[in-house]
Amino acid sequence: QVQLVESGGGLVQTGGSLRLSCAASGLTFSPYGMGWFRQYPGKEREFVAAITWSGGDTYYVNSVKARFTISRENDKSTVFLQMNTLKPEETAIYYCAAARSGRLYRGLDYDYWGQGTQVTVSS
Fold this sequence. Notes:
The structure is a single chain. This protein is 0% helix and 50% strand. The chain has strands at residues 3-7, 10-13, 18-25, 33-39, 46-51, 58-60, 68-73, 78-83, 92-99, 112-113, 117-122. The strands form 2 sheets. Strands 2, 4, 5, 6, 9, 10 and 11 form a 7-stranded mixed sheet that branches. The chain has a 4-stranded antiparallel sheet with strand order 1-3-8-7, with no helix packed on it. The radius of gyration is 13 Å and the shape is globular. The termini are far apart.
């Protein structure tokens, strides 16, 4: 059974940082592209960042470029999202996901999803 388990969410002040982790099990991790998405209450999930299987390419939504960094450690089957200079409007549930193929910015192309971790940025 494939599991993606996020951790590292929590409460942080405006301008603060958090590092999210997503540990995968039940799949051979390295062939999968990995992504982070977030969901605001009552809204669709939106793409935040993604990384190819090798880690050689990364993608970000424009609003987080230069503040967020996605990385992965294939030997630990884990993907990370370092989030700096957080803003109150980025309060959301953050999900990681795994895609064997497809376009990494598109949620529909992902095969597996985690349960999400809450990030709350206080103003």
